[in-house]
Amino acid sequence: MRFTAKKSLGQNFLIDKNILNKIANIGNISKEDKVLEIGPGTGNLTEYIIKANPKAIVVIEKDFRLVKILEKKFKNQIKIINNDVLKLPESFYKDQYLVYGNLPYNISTQIFAYWCLSKKVKFKKLILMFQKEVADRIIANINTKNYSRITILANWKFNVKKICDVSPECFFPSPKIKSTLLEFTPKIDIIKIKNPKNLENITKIFFNQKRKMIKKNFIKLFRNYDYVSKTINIKLTDRPQNISVEKFLRLVIEFENNLK
Q: Rounded distance, CA 11 to CA 46, Å?
């Protein structure tokens, strides 16, 4: 069946067999695993996942044209959900899936941030393909230009490992940018905050003015800003990229403790 990719849906299908095999193997799929694949496209990676014989395979595909291709190709070997991943309720993730995803680049950070900020969504592991510049922000070190909000969100809940960069030639149609494959393993113990929305809002406030010193934002957030900065050991002359993930989380806790 001839298929034309939709640019509006960020469709770039991975076709390199070596990379596909490598991605499938990273998950170390067992017979007990329930696998969730986001954006399977024409099912190139799905074929390798099926060979590993997991307990169940669920794929989420928004494009109904691709759903018809997947139904014909795999029949009852997989469960296909024709929906937008951003519209799925938290209850959908109750099975703690092993997740594979070549995420649409135009909404990849939105999808990932939703997973990070949800209290109920939990996974066994995530193996995700991102646009390289997004991946560089996720794995960025403190005190670097790529250190950002998504760095904080990702490293709050996950141990993140870069697997490899993937060249445009490995996709069809070829994107204009490089991609990067990342592995996310959930942390056993995370710093607990009452409401993840507070982490979202506070990081947004700080990184919206990432080149400016943090003092003004501190004054907006805390009446006792001087005390809070000293308690967490943050200099008011710092910039957002100078504050570690742990200190951002401690900031959220202080903020929540100060709420009446």
A: 16
Dist CA 31 CA 16 (whole Å): 26
149 and 28 part of one domain? yes
Question: Which of 143, 161, 186 is at the close of a domain?
Answer: 186
Among residues 31, 82, 26, which one has the least CA distance to residue 56? 31
Specify the DSSP class assigned to residue 175.
Answer: P
Peptide bond into 168 cis (omega under 30): no
Compute the distance between CA of residue 190 and CA of residue 128 in angstroms, rounded to an integer.
21
- The predicted model scores a pTM of 0.92
Q: How far apart are CA 137 and CA 223, in angstroms?
A: 32
DSSP string over 102-156 = E--TTTHHHHHHHHHH-SS---SEEEEEEEHHHHHHHTPPTTSTT--HHHHHHHH
- Answer yes or no: do 157 and 249 share one domain: no
Per-residue pLDDT tens listing for the chain (260 residues):
455 545 544 567 899 999 999 999 999 999 999 999 999 999 999 999 999 999 999 999 999 999 999 999 999 999 999 999 999 999 999 999 999 998 877 789 999 999 999 989 999 999 999 999 999 999 999 999 999 999 999 999 999 999 999 999 999 878 888 999 999 999 999 999 999 999 999 999 999 988 899 999 999 999 899 999 999 999 999 999 999 999 999 999 999 998 75
Cα 123 from Cα 184, distance rounded (Å): 9
152 and 101 belong to one structural domain: yes
Domain final residue, candidates 132, 159, 186: 186
Q: Quote the domain boundaries for residue 229.
A: 196-258
C-alpha span between 55 and 208 (Å, rounded): 44
